[in-house]
Every structure is written in structure tokens, then in C-alpha cells.
Amino acid sequence: MNREDFTLCDYKLSLFRAEKADSPLIIFNQFSDEGEAAFLDLQKENYKDFHFLAIGNLNWERDLSPWPAPALGKEGDDFTGGGEKYLDCILSEILPLAKEKINGVPEFIGIAGYSLAGLFALYALYNTDVFTRVASMSGSLWFPGIKEFCKENAMKILPEKLYLSIGEKESKTRHPILKTMQENTEDLLKHFKSMGIETTYEVNPGNHFQDVNLRCAEGILELLQ
């Protein structure tokens, strides 16, 4: 396994280089190690060779939220809306360095993430044309205003492939915001399909915290098909 770990802008980066030149590059924002674990599982199954960049040590509520929003509960932190600034860091510093370290020119560059990182992956489409394939696994599409934002704004590029997933029990909650997740996801699914985007949607067993690594692997695999 050709792996290199480094730090940039206080983020911890793990780059797994493919053996084959010009292989696809997948960017994955992770909470702990769910992206890395999914990547290693895919490698064990000898799936298509690809470069994988896992980004960690994120301030979840700051870096991945598109705009400010209140915390979901008394013990949570407010979302401070640093998504645009963090995306700029990816585009101006992290991605150029990663491309210097890999062999050849990526066949395509995709972005993927779970939960709030899945929301960020979708948000990125409206701010850059760099990512041509996107996977949002159990993406936080309950986030206030995101459905309206996606419908009222134009993407910088229509992705070649878009993957959405959700756990079947994620919206079965009394929380007035979280309970909108499946409704919002399926509403946006229809919207994206109406735009002619090749979109795959999967409803997985369990709640938000079940089979995270497996769900991530399935989303990444879909981008590589």
C-alpha cells in the first residue's frame, strides 16, 4: 500500500496512491477513519485502482457547514458556516499538493463524504467545477435551507454521477429538523434527476450510525463504476 501521511492547514491528510497512472482521485472528508476503512475494504476486494485522499482533523460544525445554523440540541455546537472557506483551502492548497504526489493526471476527481461531509460534497458542486462525481452517504440534507439552496442555484458543473443514500430509520425521530432528512433527500433526488444527472439512491437498513464503513464503500464504488 503506497500511503503518505502529511499535515496541511492543520488538517491531517492520508494519501493512498494508485499503482496505475492516471487513475481516478477521490477526496473524502472524514470524521474519524470511516473513509480510510472503506477504502481499505475496497482494496481487499480488488476493485478498480484509484487514488484516495482522506482529510481529517476537521472542525465538523465549521468546515463542513455551508452557512451558520443553530445547534441541533443543548449539548451540541452551533454551525458556523465555514464551508466556503474550507472548500477554497481544498482547491487552492490541498488538491494541488495531492496532484503533485500522484502518478499522471487523474481520469476524474470525485468527492465523497458521510453525514455533514456528504452535505458538503453536494454543496461543493455549486461552488466549483472540479468534481465530476459526487457521493453523499447519509448526507445531512436536513440542514436548514439546503433544499431551497440546491433548487434555486445552478451547479458549476453537472456531475457525471451522483450517489445519495440514507438509513431507513434516520427520519424516524421526534426532532423537528432531523425528521425532514428523508423527505428532503428524496425531493432533491427528483430535482437532480429532472436535471438529467445520473443519480443513484439507496435506502440502507438501520439508523444514522449503522454500517457507516460499508455505506461509505458502496458510495465510493458507485463513483468508480
Describe this structure in words.
Keywords: Membrane, Transmembrane, Transmembrane helix. It holds the Pfam family Esterase. This is Esterase. With 225 residues, the chain is α/β, with parallel strands linked by helices. It has a single domain (2-224), classed as Rossmann fold (3-Layer(aba) Sandwich). It is 34% helix and 24% strand. The chain is built from seven helices and ten strands. It has helices spanning 34-44, 60-63, 83-101, 116-124, 146-152, 181-194, 212-224, and strands at residues 2-8, 11-17, 25-29, 51-56, 68-69, 79-80, 109-114, 133-137, 161-167, 199-204. The chain has an eight-stranded mixed beta sheet, sandwiched between helices. A two-stranded antiparallel ribbon has the order 5-6. Helix 5 (146-152) links the parallel strand 8 and strand 9 (161-167). Helix 1 packs across helix 7 (212-224). It is globular and about 50 Å long. The mean pLDDT is 93.
Which properties best describe this structure?
225 residues, alpha/beta, Rossmann fold, eight-stranded mixed sheet, globular, transmembrane
Summarize the biggest pleated sheet.
Answer: 8 strands, mixed
Q: Order of strands in the sheet with the most strands?
A: 1-2-4-3-7-8-9-10
CATH superfamily: Alpha/Beta hydrolase fold, catalytic domain
Uncertain ranges: none
Q: How large is the radius of gyration?
A: 16 Å
CATH architecture: 3-Layer(aba) Sandwich
Protein name: Esterase
Transmembrane segments: 108-126
Organism: Oribacterium asaccharolyticum ACB7
Pfam family, one: Esterase
